[in-house]
Structure formats: C-alpha cells, structure tokens
C-alpha cells in the first residue's frame, strides 16, 4: 500500500515494485490486475478484462497451461478434516473448530477492507519506521493512536521537540492513529536545488554510475533520436495534446463547452466506424492498427483486433529505463549538493504528547537500538550505510532438507572468555564447529533486541532490531550468509507470545495508553513472568507481528522460526493450568481464539510468500492439529517440539535409581503418544537450564568424576555410558528433527547461568569451555556425537519413516526398534550383560555394527570383540517377526546394526 506522499521513479516502478490495483464492484467483488510480478505472493482470483486476438475469427487454441488453483469452496475444504484422521469424536471441539474457521474467514475479509492482500498486510516495514525517499528526504511513519502530538527528537536536531513534528488534525496524522513526519535533506550553501535529479542508490560496485554529467536536454534528445517513434515525443512534452486533438476532431474547434451544450452522442461503435470511413483514403501509417469491437452489452468484455506485426512490435518495445537512469545522480553527486536530513548513525527517539503528559519512546519499527550510558533508556540508531559499505549477500539459501539436525546457540555465550561475545566471535568459532559436528541447521536464541541480558532474550523490547550487544545489523547478515555458505540453515527463536513490560524501552504504554499493543487488565499481563500479552485481535497488532516475521526472512534471509512458548498465548491462564488431555481443555473458555487465528495466519503467510520456510511450534500442551494444514483445521506448523522428553530424562537422572527405570515409559514419552509423530522434534536437553537454574546432564552424570579409584571409575563409566545412550535413543526413535544445545555434544560439564544480581553479575558460567575438546573424556564424547551425526547423514535415519518398536522389556531393560535397514538395540540395565540376546528382525541376512557406544574410542570398555561385529540371522520367529539375531549386549550400552547383505531363505 503506497502513501500518497511517496514519489515513485519509473525505474523502481518497473524493476522493484509490484502494484496491485483493486477495483470494487458492489460490496464483495474484487478485481485484481497485476502489472509486475517478481516474487511469490498471496493472491486472489482474477477476472479477465479483455480478450485479444489477431483476427476476427475465434482465437487459435493456445498451448495447454496448468489448471488454476481451486478456491477453498471448489476444493471442498474440511475445517475439521484431521478429526476423522485421528479418530477424534469430541463434538464440542468439532464445533469449536468450525466456529474458528468461520472467524478466520471473517478476519481475512476484515483485513482486505484495509489492505490490498495478505502480502501487503505482512510488509508493513516497507512503510513504517524510517525510510529514505528519493525526493531528498527521509520519511518516518509510526502507529500511536493514543497520542495527540508526535515529533522526532535526536542528535540531528538537538533533541528539539518542535523541529520535526506532526500534530493531530494536521497533515501527517490519520484517523487510524498513524503519524507521518518528513525529514528534509538540507541543501548545501551555494548549491542550486535539483529539479529532476533525485537521489538514486545504485547498489553495484560503481555506485555512482547514474551520474553521466549530461544535461537534461541532451538526454531527451538522445531518447527522441534512439527510442521514440516519429511524433511520439510530442506526447511527452504535452500530456493534453492527444485529448485536445480528439476533442477537436469529435466536436470541431467551437464544440460544446458544458454538459448542457453537449447533444446526444452516438454510441462508440458508430462514432468509430464513421471516423474510419472518413479516413479510409489516408495513408496506412496514419491509421490505427487496432480495432475495438463492442457488442453493446452492459459491462461487456471488449474484443481488441489487431495485426500480428503490430502486436510483435509492441511486445518488443522496452521501457526507456536506460535514459531515465541517465537522469539519476548517484550517492556521491547527491552528497555534494545535499546534507542528509538524518545521517547514518544518528540517534533518535519519538516524542509523544499524550493525555497523561509527554513521553519519549524508541520507535516500534526501529531496526537498530542501543542503550544509553546509564542503561535506563534506549536510543534508536538510523542504519543507512552507504552502498559501498553496506553488506552484499554472497550465498543463496541452502536447500530445504528432509530432516533437521539443529545446533541451538546463544551468541553471547559462544566465547570461552568471560564476556558478551559478538557475531564475529560466533562466525569464527561456532559456525565451523557446527559444520564439523555434522549438523545441518543452527537455531539462534536471544538475537532480537531485549533489555536485560540475564533474561536470555525472551523479554523482547524491539522486535525489528538485532541485539546491539552482539554487533550491527550488517554483522548479523554476515553471520547468516557465512552459515549459508557452509550449508547450514539459520533458524530464529521468535517470541511473539509475550513482550517486555518495560515502559521506557519496550512497547508497554507505548502511546500513553494501556491498550495500544496489549490487552488491558489481567489479560494483558502474564501471571507469573511479568510480561505483557499481545492483543491479537487488533488489525494493527496483526500488521505489526506478521510484518515482523516477514521482515526477518526478507531482510536477514533466515530460513525459519522456532515459535517460543505457544501455551502462554493460546490460553488466558498462560498455560499454567494442569492438563489432563481431555478435549474440553482445548476448546473451553480459557482458549484464546484470537491467538489461534494469528498463528494460522502467520503460517499461511510465511509458507505462501516463502515456500521453503520452516516453522517449529513449542507448545507444552500439544494443541491438536499443530502440524496439520490450516485448511483442515490445523495450525500449519512444520514441526512441533516434544518438551516431555527432556523433563523425563531429567527426572530419571535426578530422582530414580538406574534399576527402576521403566523402558515402557521411556518409549511412550519419546514417541509422544500423539498425532503427527513424524513431525516431532526431539532433544535430550536444550538451553532451559540457563533460565531454570538446573544442572546440565553432563554435570549430573559426569561432574567431577575421575578414574583414580575403582568407585569413581565406575561412576565415571556410568555417566559417560548413559550420556551417550540417552542422546542416541532420543535422536533416532522420534520424528524427522533433532536438536542439541551448543556444547552439549562434548559433555559441557557446567550449566549456563547469565550474569545477574544474585551472582554479582558473574560471567563464569556464561561461556563455553571449548578447550575441553582437548581433554580425552570430552573429545571422546564429541567423537561419538560426530559419528552419530554421520550415521544420520549417511544412513538418512531421521528422513526415514517412523521407527518400528518391536521389543520393549522392562525386566531385562532392553529396547529395540527398526528404522529402515537399521536395527537399534539398547541395554539400560546397570548390571546385567547378555551374551546372546534374542532380537527379532524382518529381513534375513547379515547385520553389521555401524555404531557402538561401548567402543574404547568413545570412552567405553570395548567388551564387544571384532568377531561379533557381523551377525547373521536365525530362522526363528521372535518379537512377532520372521527371523531373529542373537547379539551380545554389555550393560549400559547400545549398538546400531545395518543390514548389509540379504539372504534368500
């Protein structure tokens, strides 16, 4: 959607911008004409407004095209389709889904009354915030419906509250609460203002290419000689010449001047035929090459008849962009005459006068924010580096993999030094390590700007800004680009479930009112975390959040999002109620339907604009349909996180003796017991210990154990064995995605604890001890994790179908399952070892060990000899399968067998 004050050059109109022109017929019918289409888009059905042919006969049959996509009604969309799929017969929940689906359609209709399309709804960052305009100015647009006065204050105007402002009721403020401020560039002393030369950034090596030094007259003469047909240039100089000439031909030089003087006019076809008869003896070059046929019906579609030669000539005609670019001055020439109204690096805030008094805020759409000296107030920074300094992308997005092996990271703790690390530290240290470790994606937490470092980045203050603690926006672009160069996808953990409650740096009381972005009263405040809850039913809030998702993809080329803590937004009790799994809990009065509609819209928009984007849902309640299509009653996510797995492992390690572990409970928890198991993301442990204060698994299992005494050696072997087994079964038994937190792959022995008042702001636990990789123990654990990732890469474990779990024995504490040609066998018993344990298999043949947790190179005992590496099946039924293997199983060990040779029986 374009502002009326925007000036659009022809070059950007033809090259960069796509316009949707909508005309309304009645109250519901929309007609869309697309002039330029350069990106994927959310589109609506189109109506043809003309038919073209080269003769008066019916047009020849065209090349067969793919059928157009059917609308929802034509495809017969079933909003509760997944109920039948998963056997859910709960009537109240089915009715809730139907009502929700209707509400979604009504919401889309409401959106389209204010926006051209869902794409325009999710590209608010193109207008809001600070943007350079080609007409020697910077435009600022902000939404603050509760304010009475708005001004920009900063070091560029001496923090004046009156120099750059917009008042209520004057130009710059509309009825929806959007404030518009223009910052004019200043003409340097002794310089003449440009008439046709607008600033034009040419993002190429020779960025001043547009400044040729030619005069306007010389460029126009060159265009007339080389481009325009004889006589066409006259129409450029006088836009009314054609209209005046046609009027004179129709009515004569003394024609009617008013409607009263205008007599009854014949229809268009009669007038056209009479004109053609009058000029039938004129030279062919003077006659039009097209005929317009109108059958006289109201709202009829016109036929345009023309000769093929004219059509071809018209198609070959290219816009005179080259001549237009010659009238553009590059940045150097522009800076010679003008001083920027808002120079790059300027610090600023937005000033509001409200019914409760004046206040200053960081703009909601600011893209770079830094704290001031005392840390109580933040400042927005205008980030507009010159083209020669701006970051230029080098690598494309990696291909979307069939399975994910995610390396979760926090930039601030990636260094070994006790400090807040930077994007540059992360690029040099973590990216090569993640690639070497065998992961195919990284997931970043705490990247979006937040106030308090110890909150890990979850209390977001500025949703469009990269955290200045780690570097500049261009530094983050380089991180993403370097990751793509290594073949690593980049995911961002996004927090749209709540926001920081800080008034001076965040969105709370942004315009002086309590209901600008958030709900009022209890619903607007998280019961336990002290954060604010978004008002998802407000169109302007939806505009802000949907645009935010699209911003990170468009501006920083991220490949997907991990949606944090959905249960906080899906329920008015913020997910802190006891869940029994009854379907009533997913459709009762505590469910926030507006939040559900936002998540559905978010997935629809993201997947429509960026088909390869990946979305991951983190919901402790496992809301039904998280990963089902939105057209069938689902929320549309690609993966969901099984949060129970990590909690189960922690409870077993801290509270349950080894011999009391239940194999059935382990399997049922890891499999989720829910629908869409194939879309489940599993992890043994992630970054949660950083905010819960708990210990890491390595700290619990290994700690300060050593091999000096027999007792400590036994404790050490136990810890290392369980650490490897837990990670192996977690990464192979579930769906198509696995996650590991930075450092856990080599058994980082200490928990994560960010500097905060209760630890005297210590950085001792806010780092990663990479030097431990030189230690034998941690290097052995890393070797195992790396070989486990190689097993996933070469054996494509995660990308295969679900595991066939055919042996779960709580007495022997043995678990076995098949996944493709791979057989996984786990013996969790703390004491019992089995020389010839019977495990069923479906295929007869030879099975070879490809991974063994008990090998000495992984810190194990090496109890399985080379003569047991290859096992041959026995023709005896076991575990409901036709054949079996008799394999050796040392205590606390796991082996992976692969079918290497099939035998005919």
UniProtKB/TrEMBL annotation:
Protein name: 1,4-alpha-glucan-branching enzyme 3, chloroplastic/amyloplastic-like
Upper classification of the organism: Eukaryota, Viridiplantae, Streptophyta, Embryophyta, Tracheophyta
